[in-house]
Amino acid sequence: MNFLTAMTKVGIPRALLYYQYYPMWRTFFEELGVETVLSTPTTKAMVNSGCSRMVAETCLPVKVFCGHALSLVDKCDYMFIPAIRSMGKRAYNCSKFLGLPDMMKAVIPECPLILDMDIDVTNGKRTLYQNIYSLGRHFTWNPAKVKKAAEKAWECHLAYYQQMFSQGLTPTQAIDEIFSEKGVGVDQETANSSLTLTVAVVGHPYLIYDDYINHRLIHRLQTMGARVLTPEMVDEEVLDVAMTKLVGNPRWTYEVDVIGAGGYYLEVKVDGVIGVIAFGCGPDSVMMDMVYRKAKRLKAIPFMCLTLDEHTADAGLVTRLEAFLDMVKRRRREQTCV
Amino acid sequence: MRVGIPHAGNIYIPFRTLFRELGTELVVPPPNNQRALDLGVKYAPEGVCIPFKLTLGNLIEACELGADTVLQAGGFGICRLSYYAKTQKEILHDLGYDAEMLTFDVSQNKLRGILQLIKHVSDNAPWSKVIPAFRFGLAKVAAVDDIEKIVHKMRAVELEKGTANRIYREAITAIDEVADHGTLKRVVKDYSEKLYQISRNPDADSLKVGIVGEIFVVLDPFSNLDLEVELGKLGVEVKRAIFFSRWTKFSLFLNPLGVDEWKKVHEAAMPYLKRDVGGDGWESVGEKVFHAHQYDGIVHVAPFTCMPEVVAQNIMPSTKEDIPVLTLLCDEQTAKPGMLTRLEAFVDMLNFRRKRIGNLKPGVIK
Q: Is A286 close to B87, i.e. CB distance below 8 A?
């Protein structure tokens, strides 16, 4: 068993929940003496290969996930695709997250063994610990080692979120920082001091931070002279309050990122809010509508909803962004004149 | 209190009965029609599924007819259903209808929740009135479904196409009007006999096609474009497991006692889909596997962008148990000619397949 674990590789696709949990997962596996292989940032080839395998109606992020998984097929011995059902009381994840391991098994028959761990907080701590142990069991017989790895992973996860919040980093920057793949200096603030507009971008992390599928949205906004705010830059409790105010108790795990952040940014002083959703995404279709309605009622801050799919072209997106920012700028000028 | 309800197949019949027994005014919007759909499409979020749009259209029409309270299904779950009431309430409010939105929970404390809701809308009628009324409503659900099961068989073999459907419609009206248990039983018996007496094609050997998918589009003929009738015209016997009566029987009474009506289906799905993905996705995969040797083919109906059914749709082609599956997605863009062409081609293919591998016997098909 030992010589096996020495060279075991676990593949982690750089998509969907990667942006929230990658540091935790990687720490866990490394503590168990397993190497993790991460797919490269999204490329056109990945999107195409993902689209060719999945049913056409599937939403873009899942197709992209499939592309990432496909790119890892030859590079690892196991693929880590957890089925995360619930991360909080009475709030569940979308069906596609739950069916993710089974879907990948179905559409990628050549896939290495999928580690499909069930995570359901509503089932109680005991079940969760058992599931973590049975995940670790693939690599070690020693429960103490698994426990230690899990604790380390949790610490790393907390540190990751702390870093994003306190230093205003995006998940991608924070991950780079933690594993110091590149030495990113936090020069964002100084670089941004000359920027005049503040635009909030709300939506799922896997849409906002995947530069390929959103056509470098954040970068584009920054070069157009806007300071960009994202959901991670606000304390989760503040977002929770904003969300509860708008819709009451959440039904889905990531409502905070969309409704919470949307509701929060519509009330604080920003110049515009951009909602990013994926075409065919079930929860987004109703959640973004809630934010849209709030924006319509408040009539205070311009709101735009961008729907992304695999056909979205650069030019169309740029035109819309430019028009939106022009409108925001003009509006601001008028307000200062009055 | 004037209560408006959305449509879903024949669900208005038990509701009408229940409210008549309790003396509360019920506003049943016009049966699902293009106008309701147009209204729904106009005011609903763009990417939402067809059940949302249709029920929204119904509720708007109910409000136009003067409903001051509207009912909608709700509850905690993975699927968008849990968001219907919240969003529709906002939309109705924005349209200027100040109707109170009441939800009946379909996922937790089902029986108690529904009974309490009935008590609430009937201005606190005594339990001695609520419970018999509720029981009579359930009896009607069962009666409608009993007739429907016979119709499924007869549509495929009738000599003069359309006869079974005509009797079915008469039966529905009759059941709707019945006022007591005794007459209900007699009506069901009469119409069953009438249906069985339809002259049949003596050498009809109808194909058996299972219908699986999302409960609303399976049960609502308007949104699935009369799928069952069209299959009947092509000489196909429709088999389905989804019925309102089955749902009420199990999720209201037997599931809390630990009886799971889908147990075998879930077990069949296990090798391909290990967990419940919300809605009816797990059951769709399971039914394909479970009935692979019993049916000639399966028609899988789902609303466009339905999350659980997309999971099922991705998994279904990979199962070892082989049976032709036709997936039909329903939304406001679906047109009948397109669907008919696909159905005809599918049924032709099933006929060829049957000829090729001999008559269907369990275990014959590999």
A: yes
Partners of residue B76 in chain A, C-beta under 8 Å: 90, 92, 251
- Farthest CA pair distance, chain B: 63
Q: Do A92 and B80 touch (CB under 8 A)?
A: no
Contact B163, B198 (CB under 8 A): yes
Q: Compute the nearest-CA separation of A297 from chain B (Å).
A: 9
User: Can you say how many angstroms the Cα of residue A104 is from the centroid of all Cα atoms in its chain?
Assistant: 19
The C-alpha atoms of residue A186 and residue A190 are separated, in whole angstroms, by 9
Q: What is the DSSP string of A151-175?
A: HHHHHHHHHHHHHHHHHT--HHHHH
Of A96, A118, A281, the CB nearest to B311: A96
CA pair distance A40, A46, nearest whole angstrom: 10
Is residue A285 less than 8 Å (CB to CB) from chain B?
Answer: yes
| Residues A6-51 pLDDT 10s | 578 999 999 988 998 999 999 999 999 899 999 999 999 999 999 9
Class of domain B206-360 (CATH, top level): alpha beta
Please count the CA atoms within 13 angstroms of the CA of A61 that sit on its side-chain side: 28
A292: chain B residues, CB-CB within 8 Å: 45
* Contact status, residue B269 vs residue B286, Cβ threshold 8 Å: yes
CA atoms of B352 and B121, how far apart (whole Å): 55
Angle subtended by helix axes A143-167 and A171-178, to nearest 10: 130
Closest Cβ–Cβ partner in A95, A118, A277 for B277: A95
- The correct CATH number of A2-164 out of 3.90.79.10, 3.40.50.11890, 3.50.50.60, 2.60.40.1220 is 3.40.50.11890
Q: What is the pLDDT of residues A278-302, one digit of tens each?
A: 988 888 888 898 899 889 888 888 9
* Alpha-carbon distances of A2 from A154, B81, B243, rounded to whole Å: 25, 49, 55
- Considering only CB atoms, B314 lies closest to which of A54, A284, A290, namely A54
What length is written for chain B?
Answer: 366
Task: Please give the CATH topology (third level) of the domain spanning B2-125.
Answer: Rossmann fold (3.40.50)
Residues shown for chain A: 338
Helix (H) / strand (E) containing B13: helix B12-22
Give the pLDDT score at A190.
Answer: 44
pLDDT at A181: 60
SS3 label, residue B293: coil
Is the domain A191-337 a CATH 2.60.120 member? Answer: no
- The tokens describing B357, both together, are 């591998």
The CA R_g of chain A, rounded to the nearest whole Å, is 21
**CA distances (Å), B52 to each of A130, A285, B37, B86, in order?**
39, 11, 10, 12
Question: What is the C-alpha to C-alpha distance for residues A271 and A336, in angstroms, rounded to an integer?
Answer: 13
